[in-house]
Design a protein that fits this description.
The complex is a heterodimer of chains A (300) and B (632).
Chain A (H helix, E strand, L loop, with lengths): L7 H19 L3 E4 L4 H14 L8 E4 L6 H14 L3 E4 L2 H6 L3 H4 L1 H19 L3 E3 L16 E4 L27 E4 L7 H11 L10 E8 L2 E4 L13 E6 L12 E2 L5 H10 L17 H8 L3
Parallel strand pairs in A: 1-2, 1-4, 2-3, 4-6
Antiparallel strand pairs in A: 5-6, 7-8, 7-9, 9-10
Chain B lengths: L7 H6 L1 H8 L3 E8 L6 H11 L5 H14 L16 H6 L6 E6 L3 E7 L7 H9 L3 E7 L6 H12 L4 E7 L8 H17 L6 E4 L23 H7 L3 H4 L6 E3 L2 E3 L7 E5 L4 E2 L4 E5 L4 E8 L8 E2 L3 E6 L10 E4 L5 E12 L10 E6 L2 E7 L4 E3 L6 E2 L9 E14 L6 H4 E5 L6 E12 L13 H8 L4 E6 L6 H14 L4 E5 H6 L9 H20 L3 E5 L5 H10 L5 E7 L2 H7 L4 H6 L21 E4 L5 H12 L2
Parallel strand pairs in B: 1-3, 1-4, 4-5, 5-6, 24-26, 24-27, 25-26, 27-28
Antiparallel strand pairs in B: 2-3, 7-15, 8-9, 9-14, 10-13, 11-12, 11-15, 12-14, 16-21, 16-23, 17-18, 17-22, 18-21, 19-20, 19-21, 22-23
Classes of the chains: A alpha/beta (300), B alpha/beta (632).
Chain lengths: 300, 632
């Protein structure tokens, strides 16, 4: 008998598939959160593998802020179609009405569009399990979060009341009104994600690749002027060769100057670089425990 | 930067070659056991730091934190790198399990970092459950301690095949070989006594980096591998599992259309090829693998650790929770086991209570008997125990409500490891490791009787029922039950009244009032009531029966619709005011222990079939209401 040692990517893949099948079997109404970023792309790809030849037995949910990059909206619709899955787009109606935007409303922008929007969307559709693409290597408070993470009926996370997770046995039981967030990519690192995208030839938003783009520098962040809604205070956008290591709302997402236009070049740059991935996001900057606080309040 | 991790040069010069190497890396999961004092966080911090898993901004935050709250003066405090949640950081201890990642040229590593203190036994067990290897840290100045023994015992209990004894802080004992040898000798004697046949001892210094990634210059007397070299070389469980017979717990049945039926799951052991003969358990039906389906095309073979979808040649029944095995080497099927249990909940185990037991992809109802013994995790002594509390480890008999396919835990973690889930709170309350089956279900037969329960009932011209009255002591259960029985008798119904106090004089006189005894009390009453319904009787019971789970247990024993829960709802103040038997006064005076409502909880029914509010109706009216509901 020849022994076949699985590679680390094969094992991570198997683990994620196992988790997705478990949720599909035990949850009443699962959904996959889809943010159009590279982690979402990997998660969607894994879902297609897990249930092949069936389409994944749950819809995709995009909690939209109306401020994503245009390229993201284009890929979102295409990817859902290709997977044969229903795509639900949710925009917090109150944020729409009040015209909440990152330029005038600061932290309220994230709070209303994302945190509140997500809660509303889950409640509205009665989803009891939501897949998310968070990884434990992203940030300290995530290192201790479970793969199956429970939320109270008011969608709060209690770090002290987490269930032990042993072997491959996941306890997915919950009371009515409670829900769970499930993170199939928990054990992946940023490098694993990139390598897997490369190996499996997964389509990602072109913004991850370097190209000449109109940019301005604000508060130390290199921002892309993606549409005419960007208020220019006498600034003139400068064409720079930039790319994004992480994608969110374009006015909040910092680019890096780069010439990496292929996946191997991106990986190369990532390995030689010296700052961590989330640094490009304004949200984590306030204080080191900020993500934990946001999570307790219901941010994904 | 040590070259064992990665070569910046190769990345810069030939990224494709680098990627080619790195996509073939294997993955090892390990757990580190020890306390902060042993330099555990420092060791992990160093592994992350040396492997460049720390970026400049994180390093800046670390330097900042080190000055603010660190314990290393002006030096970097690596321990802060691996501390997680804000609340814990303030207390200066890590609780829970945190997972860390780093990689070398050959492998990716996932480290489960768990705290070492005894009150975190459950966390260590959790971390160990997915690990291939345990690193047991010892402070060279202190030698083998109680916690060393505890950690080794737990690692061995959870079936870890590789144990590394990392003797840390060698720099603080002058890199003295004798110190190291003495510790290893002492440890070997202990390890053998608990059944650990093999371990690897490595002298290290986490602070100075000796024998972590590169050999320690001051320890030329040591000619074994460095810690990382060893972690890179040990055989993975995923490889070892492939030599065992094929096992696939079925997770999900894939049915996109009528022409396709696939069985999806993660292979627990062995290998499989198209054409292989397989057997489905518990049914025992056999078939052949027609194909192994995947998104990337059909596969020639699949091995332990892969998540696959199999199509079989024959249309045989197979659903979630069943196990597909090699045809000539099936697993056992049974409904009663001896198992090691690790209790993980703040609320003690209740012997006799029904819990959900999840093993593989199957969830069944199960009860746990009184423990045979509890193991003192520090001395490995067996102690007598009536229950298991948080972090306690013991051995007990577990009985499931149906046959389940299984393997002893020592053979298979996937088919021998289970969790117990509380039916009301849904919390994971315990973990279990199956030793062996106590009885094979196939040996138990029901004696078939010619006069059926239906026949008994039709002779009496009635439908058997259990009228289950629950409520506080002094709520009026017995009085109302007695009136109901009198009324039914007048209507020529055949009844029997089981009263709490009366039963405790006979059948249950060996039982007290602890939670465990209360559960057993109700279980016996339930069984008696069940026999009486088989005989065709209408059974009326009057028991406090304070716990929802036991009332639900009795309901589950009966035929659907037979069990009628009647809540005699009297508020505590009211019952205490009446205090017909003077018991509340005694309980308040501390003369009666475990008295429901005073120092023992009462869980009111959430949706009783009948609720009687005794503050607004008399006993006579209550009895009439009950009869009216039963016989409209």
């Amino acid at each position: 008998m020849t022994i076949q040692s699985l590679t680390h990517l094969q094992r991570l893949e198997a683990e994620a598939i196992h988790i997705m099948r478990e949720v599909a079997s035990e949850a009443e109404k699962p959904v996959m959160l889809y943010s159009v970023g590279k982690d979402s792309a990997v998660m969607l790809h894994l879902a297609r593998k897990a249930f092949y030849p069936s389409p994944p037995p749950f819809p995709l949910l995009h909690v939209d802020t109306t401020w994503k990059f245009r390229d993201m909206y284009a890929l979102r619709d295409r990817a859902a179609r290709k997977a044969g899955m229903q795509l639900i787009v949710y925009q917090n109606p109150e944020a729409v009405k009040r015209g909440i935007n990152p330029f005038d409303h600061g932290a309220l922008h994230t709070d209303m569009w994302k945190t509140e929007g997500l809660k509303q969307a889950l409640d509205l559709h009665g989803f009891d399990a939501a897949f998310g693409g968070a990884r434990r290597d992203e940030e300290k408070s995530r290192a201790k979060e479970r793969i199956f993470s429970f939320r109270t009926a008011s969608q709060r996370w209690d770090p002290k009341a987490q269930r032990p997770e042993l072997w491959r046995v996941y306890n997915a039981r919950k009371a009515k009104g409670e829900s769970m967030r499930v993170f199939p990519l928990s054990n992946w690192t940023e490098l694993d994600i990139w390598q897997y995208i490369h190996l499996e030839n997964i389509e990602i938003v072109p913004l991850y690749f370097a190209a000449e783009r109109p940019t301005v520098i604000r508060d130390g962040l290199l921002l892309m002027v993606d549409d005419e809604r960007f208020p220019l205070n006498g600034e003139t956008p400068v064409m720079r060769s930039v790319r994004f290591r992480t994608l969110g709302c374009y006015p909040l997402t910092g680019a890096v100057e780069s010439r990496a236009s292929t996946l191997p070049e991106i990986i190369q740059e990532m390995l030689l670089t010296t700052t961590s991935e989330r640094q490009g996001r304004a949200i984590d900057h306030d204080q080191s425990a900020s993500m934990e606080k946001k999570k307790q309040e219901g941010y994904f | 930067m040590n070259e064992i991790y990665k070569t910046d040069a190769l990345i810069a010069e030939d990224i494709d070659a680098y990627l080619e190497t790195h996509q073939h890396k294997t993955m090892l999961r390990f757990i580190t056991c020890g306390s902060v004092d042993d330099g555990k966080s420092t060791l992990i911090g160093r592994l992350l730091y040396d492997s460049k898993m720390i970026f400049e901004d994180q390093l800046a935050a670390l330097e900042n934190d080190s000055k603010r709250v660190g314990t290393q003066g002006e030096n970097i405090d690596f321990a802060l790198l691996v501390d997680g949640l804000a609340a814990e950081r303030e207390q200066g201890i890590t609780i829970d399990v945190a997972y860390r990642f780093f990689a070398t040229e050959k492998r990716k590593f996932i480290v489960a970092d768990t705290p070492g203190h005894e009150q975190y036994t459950r966390n260590m067990v959790t971390g160990a459950s997915t690990a291939d290897l345990a690193v047991i840290l010892i402070d060279a100045r202190k030698g083998v301690l109680t916690q060393t023994r505890r950690h080794s015992y737990l690692a061995h209990l959870l079936g870890l095949r590789h144990i590394v004894l990392a003797v840390n802080k060698m720099d603080l004992v002058g890199y003295d070989r004798e110190v190291f040898d003495r510790i290893v000798t002492e440890y070997r004697a202990f390890a053998e006594s608990i059944g650990i046949v093999d371990f690897t001892a490595i002298p290290i210094s986490g602070l100075a980096g000796d024998n972590i990634a590169s050999p320690g210059a001051a320890m030329d007397w040591y000619d074994g591998p460095t810690l990382l070299a060893h972690l890179e070389a040990v055989e993975l469980d995923q490889s070892a599992d492939q030599r065992k017979p094929f096992r696939l717990p079925v997770q999900w049945v894939n049915r996109p259309n009528l022409d396709f039926r696939g069985f999806s799951g993660t292979i627990a052991a062995g290998q499989i090829h198209p054409g292989d003969e397989v057997r489905v358990l518990p049914s025992g039906k056999t078939s052949r693998v027609a194909k192994i389906v995947s998104f990337d095309g059909e596969l020639d073979r699949a091995v332990a650790g892969q998540a696959v979808t199999l199509c079989l040649a024959d249309e045989i029944d197979c659903s979630r929770g069943q196990v597909i095995t090699a045809a000539n080497s099936p697993v056992e099927v049974a409904d009663q086991f001896e198992a090691s249990l690790i209790w993980m909940d703040e609320e003690d185990m209740v012997p006799g209570r029904a819990y959900w037991l999840k093993i593989g992809a199957q969830t069944v109802s199960a009860t746990v008997a009184h423990p045979k013994y509890q193991t003192n995790v520090n001395t490995m002594e067996h102690l007598a125990a009536k229950t298991l509390d948080l972090n306690a480890i013991g051995v007990a008999v577990v009985t499931t409500d149906r046959d389940i396919p299984f393997a002893p835990y020592a053979e298979s973690r996937d088919l021998g490891g289970f969790i117990l889930i509380d039916k009301l709170t849904n919390r994971t309350v315990g973990a279990g490791l199956i030793h062996f089956a106590l009885r094979r279900a196939s040996n138990i037969h029901w004696q078939a009787t010619d006069i059926s329960r239906d026949h008994h009932a039709s002779l009496k011209n009635q439908q058997p029922k259990v009228l289950w009255m629950t409520g506080l002591s002094g709520s009026g259960k017995s009085t109302i039950a007695n009136l109901v029985e009198k009324k039914l008798a007048r209507m020529n119904r055949h009844t029997f009244l089981l009263d709490g106090d009366n039963v405790r004089h006979g059948l249950n006189k060996d039982l007290g009032f602890t939670d465990a005894d209360r559960v057993e009390n109700i279980r016996r009453v339930g069984e008696v009531a069940k026999l009486m319904t088989d005989a065709g009787l209408i059974v009326i019971t009057a028991f406090i029966s304070p716990f929802r789970s036991e009332r639900e247990m009795v309901r589950a024993m009966m035929q659907p619709g037979e069990f009628v829960e009647i809540f005699i709802d009297t508020p505590l103040e009211e019952a205490e005011k009446r205090d017909v038997k003077g018991l509340y006064a005694k309980a308040r005076a501390g003369e009666l222990k475990n008295f429901t409502g005073i120092d023992s909880p009462y869980e009111p029914p959430e949706a009783p079939q009948i609720r009687i509010d005794t503050t607004s109706v008399s006993a006579e009216e209550a009895a009439e209401q009950i009869i009216a509901k039963l016989i409209p």
